Amino acid sequence: MFSDKKEKRIAAEPGSAQNRINEGTKLKGDITSTGFFRIDGIVEGNVKTPSKVVLGKTGVIIGTLTCENADIEGKFEGNLQVSGTLSLRSTAVIEGDVTVGKLAVEPGATINASCVMQDGKPKNTTVNQSPSENTKTHPFDRQQRLKKAAVGTDLDD
């Protein structure tokens, strides 16, 4: 009479489960998942997920981490690419290259890395434009109005 179909669909939904690598576990190789990760063990390789990654105090990643958000308490060496927020706890140790959208650092965290912050928008790479072409006039720009007023008084003389 009553069906359990709704419960089965919710449990089978991709990205809803947590992937966990416990302390004492060491993985070598690339990991790709749609769900989020909690890593307390050691991963040597590339980790890629469109979700969140939590690297616990005993967790170590050596390689590349690509994710949306990351919360790091352990050690990371390599290339870190976080499109959203990277939160570094006081026990975090980061070495390598970091590309983030937003960065939150607690006192005590160690970062020996080059860090680039990106907002997801492409940078303006116009090189051959003159400064007058590069600046747009705005109708409420006071400097523009003052220049026009000065030109108008010079003509009256």
UniProtKB/TrEMBL annotation:
Pfam hit, one: Bactofilin
Stretches for region Disordered: 1-23, 115-157
InterPro entries: BacA/B
Domain of life of the source: Bacteria
Composition skew (Basic and acidic residues), residue ranges: 1-11, 135-144
Compositionally biased intervals (Polar residues): 123-134
Similarity comment: family membership: Belongs to the bactofilin family.
Protein name listed in UniProt: Polymer-forming cytoskeletal protein
Protein source organism: Aequorivita antarctica
